[in-house]
Amino acid sequence: MPAVFSAIIPTYNRAEFVARAIASALDQQLPAPGQVEVIVVDDESADATPEVAASFGDRITYVRQTNRREGAARNAGVERATGTYFAFLDSDDYWLPGKLAADLDRFEQPDSPALVYSRGRNVDLFDKLIGERRLNTPQGDVFWSLAREAFIPMSTVAVRADAFRASGGFVEDRDLSGTADWELWLRLAARWPVGFVDHVGTCIRVHKRNMSADPRYMERAMLSGVRHALADPVVAQRARGKERFIRACMYVTIALNAYTNRRRRRTWLWLARALATWPPQALDARFSGAALRALVGPTFVSRMRHVARA
Asked: Would the pTM of this model clear 0.70, i.e. be above it?
């Protein structure tokens, strides 16, 4: 019997985490049993990932491919998937009970969204809570909201299989690694409604091996994401006349990433580029918030957060 959900887990040298990810997918309960298939795509790991995957036996489908990054790995998982919906889980993250059941309920609502996402919770290497992600959570036609800000966490997302295939799936460009998800979400949002589940269903690990911890790497990925997205004919049609706005918003995202990684000079460089590209960006609260952070510095912001929590 075809699965309702295909849980697709790309992995690369995450042997210490991937078992938790796999187990969290296998433990998902839907209204009828046996409706979640788990597909692990190993992007040529050099650690014990094959052995960890083998420990689950025939409860999962394990695929090993030559190293082509996470977009190609997710597409490889889709090639073997039978589900009506594809749910994507990074191998250092994990789902909480009820995540896919809540997604299924949202997919079955009258607006028939192509993509459903939910809230994410940041945890450290030892599962200690860092905090819940405080991002916008729009639904329906979210195209311009998504063009402004990448607010959809990767491991919270499930996509209708027919919409995924019709949109062409993830772009397999190595330079896009790290932003391939936002680029696909934008293409989907340009065509169909997006649904939101007001439910914390995913724990997202924050650690130094996250791709976002390398600002130079992420700069290249984010710029590639905009280039690929605007090359899509449906996105291009919706964005016509406001391409510079989309680029400027991505420059702010790059600036915020640089700030998070304590690169204040590059933060100011990208904020200046955003302003030069789209001057009305100065009126956007996201731009002014990034500029304020860069002005006062991360130490002051950390102290204020500590005071607020206290």
From this structure: yes
